[in-house]
Protein backbone atom coordinates (compact mmCIF):
# COMPACT_ATOMS: atom_id res chain seq x y z
CA UNK A 1 0.00 0.00 0.00
CA UNK A 2 1.05 3.34 -0.85
CA UNK A 3 1.11 5.92 1.90
CA UNK A 4 0.33 8.74 -0.49
CA UNK A 5 -2.70 6.96 -1.87
CA UNK A 6 -3.97 6.29 1.63
CA UNK A 7 -3.48 9.89 2.61
CA UNK A 8 -5.13 11.03 -0.60
CA UNK A 9 -8.08 8.68 -0.02
CA UNK A 10 -8.44 9.88 3.57
CA UNK A 11 -8.19 13.45 2.29
CA UNK A 12 -10.97 12.81 -0.27
CA UNK A 13 -13.14 11.05 2.34
CA UNK A 14 -12.56 13.94 4.75
CA UNK A 15 -13.63 16.50 2.16
CA UNK A 16 -16.67 14.43 1.16
CA UNK A 17 -17.61 14.12 4.84
CA UNK A 18 -17.00 17.87 5.36
CA UNK A 19 -19.08 18.68 2.24
CA UNK A 20 -21.89 16.31 3.38
CA UNK A 21 -21.79 17.81 6.89
CA UNK A 22 -21.86 21.37 5.51
CA UNK A 23 -24.65 20.57 3.05
CA UNK A 24 -26.99 18.39 5.17
CA UNK A 25 -25.97 18.46 8.84
CA UNK A 26 -24.68 22.00 9.37
CA UNK A 27 -27.83 23.98 8.18
CA UNK A 28 -30.31 22.21 10.55
CA UNK A 29 -27.82 22.61 13.38
CA UNK A 30 -27.35 26.31 12.58
CA UNK A 31 -31.12 26.74 12.22
CA UNK A 32 -31.69 25.11 15.63
CA UNK A 33 -28.96 27.28 17.17
CA UNK A 34 -30.41 30.43 15.56
CA UNK A 35 -33.90 29.54 16.76
CA UNK A 36 -32.55 28.94 20.26
CA UNK A 37 -30.68 32.26 20.19
CA UNK A 38 -33.85 34.01 18.96
CA UNK A 39 -35.89 32.41 21.77
CA UNK A 40 -33.32 33.53 24.31
CA UNK A 41 -33.29 37.05 22.84
CA UNK A 42 -37.11 37.15 22.88
CA UNK A 43 -37.11 35.91 26.48
CA UNK A 44 -34.62 38.59 27.51
CA UNK A 45 -36.65 41.28 25.70
CA UNK A 46 -39.81 40.02 27.39
CA UNK A 47 -38.02 40.13 30.73
CA UNK A 48 -36.97 43.73 30.05
CA UNK A 49 -40.55 44.62 29.06
CA UNK A 50 -41.76 42.87 32.20
CA UNK A 51 -39.32 44.91 34.29
CA UNK A 52 -40.49 48.12 32.63
CA UNK A 53 -44.15 47.17 33.13
CA UNK A 54 -43.40 46.22 36.72
CA UNK A 55 -41.77 49.60 37.33
CA UNK A 56 -44.75 51.37 35.72
CA UNK A 57 -47.15 49.27 37.78
CA UNK A 58 -45.15 50.08 40.91
CA UNK A 59 -45.41 53.79 40.10
CA UNK A 60 -49.17 53.45 39.55
CA UNK A 61 -49.49 51.57 42.84
CA UNK A 62 -47.52 54.28 44.65
CA UNK A 63 -49.71 56.96 43.07
CA UNK A 64 -52.87 55.06 44.05
CA UNK A 65 -51.56 54.59 47.59
CA UNK A 66 -50.76 58.29 47.86
CA UNK A 67 -54.20 59.14 46.49
CA UNK A 68 -55.88 56.73 48.92
CA UNK A 69 -53.79 58.11 51.79
CA UNK A 70 -54.77 61.67 50.87
CA UNK A 71 -58.42 60.64 50.53
CA UNK A 72 -58.27 58.93 53.93
CA UNK A 73 -56.72 61.98 55.54
CA UNK A 74 -59.37 64.17 53.94
CA UNK A 75 -62.12 61.91 55.23
CA UNK A 76 -60.60 61.92 58.72
CA UNK A 77 -60.41 65.72 58.63
CA UNK A 78 -64.03 65.92 57.44
CA UNK A 79 -65.08 63.52 60.19
CA UNK A 80 -63.24 65.61 62.78
CA UNK A 81 -64.94 68.77 61.47
CA UNK A 82 -68.30 67.03 61.56
CA UNK A 83 -67.64 65.77 65.09
CA UNK A 84 -66.65 69.28 66.15
CA UNK A 85 -69.83 70.72 64.65
CA UNK A 86 -71.91 68.02 66.36
CA UNK A 87 -70.21 68.84 69.67
CA UNK A 88 -70.86 72.56 69.19
CA UNK A 89 -74.48 71.83 68.27
CA UNK A 90 -74.86 69.60 71.34
CA UNK A 91 -73.35 72.33 73.55
CA UNK A 92 -75.75 74.88 72.10
CA UNK A 93 -78.70 72.53 72.58
CA UNK A 94 -77.59 71.82 76.15
CA UNK A 95 -77.23 75.55 76.86
CA UNK A 96 -80.70 76.19 75.42
CA UNK A 97 -82.14 73.34 77.48
CA UNK A 98 -80.40 74.63 80.60
CA UNK A 99 -81.77 78.12 79.99
CA UNK A 100 -85.26 76.69 79.49
CA UNK A 101 -84.98 74.63 82.70
CA UNK A 102 -83.68 77.65 84.63
CA UNK A 103 -86.52 79.81 83.29
CA UNK A 104 -89.06 77.13 84.22
CA UNK A 105 -87.53 76.83 87.70
CA UNK A 106 -87.62 80.62 88.16
CA UNK A 107 -91.25 80.71 87.02
CA UNK A 108 -92.10 77.86 89.38
CA UNK A 109 -90.29 79.58 92.25
CA UNK A 110 -92.12 82.82 91.45
CA UNK A 111 -95.40 80.93 91.47
CA UNK A 112 -94.58 79.33 94.79
CA UNK A 113 -93.64 82.73 96.24
CA UNK A 114 -96.93 84.19 94.99
CA UNK A 115 -98.87 81.23 96.40
CA UNK A 116 -97.05 81.54 99.72
CA UNK A 117 -97.88 85.26 99.84
CA UNK A 118 -101.54 84.52 99.13
CA UNK A 119 -101.61 81.87 101.85
CA UNK A 120 -99.85 84.25 104.21
CA UNK A 121 -102.39 86.99 103.44
CA UNK A 122 -105.23 84.56 104.08
CA UNK A 123 -103.64 83.49 107.36
CA UNK A 124 -103.00 87.11 108.38
CA UNK A 125 -106.60 88.00 107.54
CA UNK A 126 -107.86 85.06 109.54
CA UNK A 127 -105.65 86.00 112.49
CA UNK A 128 -106.75 89.62 112.21
CA UNK A 129 -110.40 88.57 112.23
CA UNK A 130 -109.83 86.26 115.21
CA UNK A 131 -107.91 88.99 116.95
CA UNK A 132 -110.70 91.47 116.29
CA UNK A 133 -113.20 88.87 117.44
CA UNK A 134 -111.23 88.35 120.61
CA UNK A 135 -111.03 92.08 121.15
CA UNK A 136 -114.70 92.63 120.54
CA UNK A 137 -115.65 89.42 122.35
CA UNK A 138 -118.24 88.69 119.84
CA UNK A 139 -118.34 86.76 116.61
CA UNK A 140 -117.67 88.51 113.33
CA UNK A 141 -119.60 87.17 110.32
CA UNK A 142 -116.99 86.44 107.62
CA UNK A 143 -119.59 86.13 104.85
CA UNK A 144 -121.04 89.50 105.69
CA UNK A 145 -117.68 91.15 105.82
CA UNK A 146 -116.13 89.41 102.76
CA UNK A 147 -115.58 92.71 100.94
CA UNK A 148 -113.82 94.07 103.96
CA UNK A 149 -111.65 90.97 104.20
CA UNK A 150 -110.73 91.11 100.47
CA UNK A 151 -109.78 94.76 100.86
CA UNK A 152 -107.63 93.84 103.83
CA UNK A 153 -105.96 91.06 101.82
CA UNK A 154 -105.14 93.45 99.01
CA UNK A 155 -103.62 95.93 101.40
CA UNK A 156 -101.38 93.30 102.86
TrEMBL record:
Q: Which InterPro entries match?
A: ATP_synth_B-like_membr_sf, ATP_synth_b/b'su_bac/chlpt, ATP_synth_F0_bsu_bac, ATP_synthase_B_chain
Gene Ontology MF term list: proton-transporting ATP synthase activity, rotational mechanism; proton-transporting ATPase activity, rotational mechanism
**Membrane topology type, per the record?**
Single-pass membrane protein
Q: Which Pfam family is an annotated match for this chain, by its short name?
A: ATP-synt_B
**Keyword terms, alphabetized:** ATP synthesis, Cell membrane, CF(0), Coiled coil, Hydrogen ion transport, Ion transport, Membrane, Transmembrane, Transmembrane helix, Transport
Q: How does it assemble?
A: F-type ATPases have 2 components, F(1) - the catalytic core - and F(0) - the membrane proton channel. F(1) has five subunits: alpha(3), beta(3), gamma(1), delta(1), epsilon(1). F(0) has three main subunits: a(1), b(2) and c(10-14). The alpha and beta chains form an alternating ring which encloses part of the gamma chain. F(1) is attached to F(0) by a central stalk formed by the gamma and epsilon chains, while a peripheral stalk is formed by the delta and b chains. F-type ATPases have 2 components, F(1) - the catalytic core - and F(0) - the membrane proton channel. F(1) has five subunits: alpha(3), beta(3), gamma(1), delta(1), epsilon(1). F(0) has four main subunits: a(1), b(2) and c(10-14). The alpha and beta chains form an alternating ring which encloses part of the gamma chain. F(1) is attached to F(0) by a central stalk formed by the gamma and epsilon chains, while a peripheral stalk is formed by the delta and b chains.
Keyword Magnesium among record annotations:
no
Q: What is its main location?
A: membrane
Residues spanning the signal sequence = none
Q: Which residues form a coiled coil?
A: 51-126
Q: Name one GO cellular component term.
A: plasma membrane
What's this protein's family per the entry? Belongs to the ATPase B chain family.
- Which protein is depicted? ATP synthase subunit b
Species per Swiss-Prot/TrEMBL record: Noviherbaspirillum humi
Q: Which residues cross the membrane?
A: 6-26
Summarize the protein's role. Answer: Component of the F(0) channel, it forms part of the peripheral stalk, linking F(1) to F(0). The b'-subunit is a diverged and duplicated form of b found in plants and photosynthetic bacteria.
- Provide the protein's localization: Cell membrane; Endomembrane system
| NCBIfam families linked to this entry | ATP_synt_b, PRK05759.1-2
Amino acid sequence: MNLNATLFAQFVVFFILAWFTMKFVWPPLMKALDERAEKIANGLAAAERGKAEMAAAEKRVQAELASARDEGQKRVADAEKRAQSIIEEAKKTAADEAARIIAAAKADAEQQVTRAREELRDQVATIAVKGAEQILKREVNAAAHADLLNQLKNEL
